[in-house]
Design goal:
Layout lengths: L2 E4 L4 H10 L8 E4 L11 E3 L5 E2 L1 E4 L6 H13 L25 E3 L3
Parallel strand pairs: 1-3
Antiparallel strand pairs: 1-6, 2-5, 3-4
Length: 108
């Protein structure tokens, strides 16, 4: 499993936080599960906790979810993915994350 470490937040989010502080912000995001031919999913290992994490992250302003998924996969794994379909769209109070960490893959 690749190892991940914290990276700086985007300039967009940094500017937003400077204006509104730590109030709740809606940040749409994508998750990009990548399977191999044997049905195994690629996970990254978080350095601090050792937990396995899926690939993904925030959708930038004016970016489509599809484009964000491809960009996140490249940023975190160095590989281009072929997206087959949208599996699901989730939202609501049950999906609120109080603290979001930006993560980057150290090796694939």
């Amino acid at each position: 499993m690749p190892t991940v470490s914290a990276v700086a937040i985007s300039e967009y989010l940094r500017g937003l936080r400077q204006r509104i502080g730590h109030d709740l912000v809606h940040l749409p995001a994508v998750c990009v599960p990548i399977w191999d031919d044997d049905g195994r999913v690629l996970l990254m290992r978080e350095v601090e906790t050792g937990r396995g994490l899926t690939i993904g992250g925030m959708i930038d302003p004016d970016e489509s979810p599809r484009d964000a998924a491809v960009r996140q996969a490249v940023e975190e794994t160095g590989r281009t993915v072929r997206l087959e379909r949208l599996r699901t769209a989730l939202g609501g109070p049950g999906y609120r994350v109080e603290r979001l960490r930006a993560l980057m893959c150290g090796a694939v």
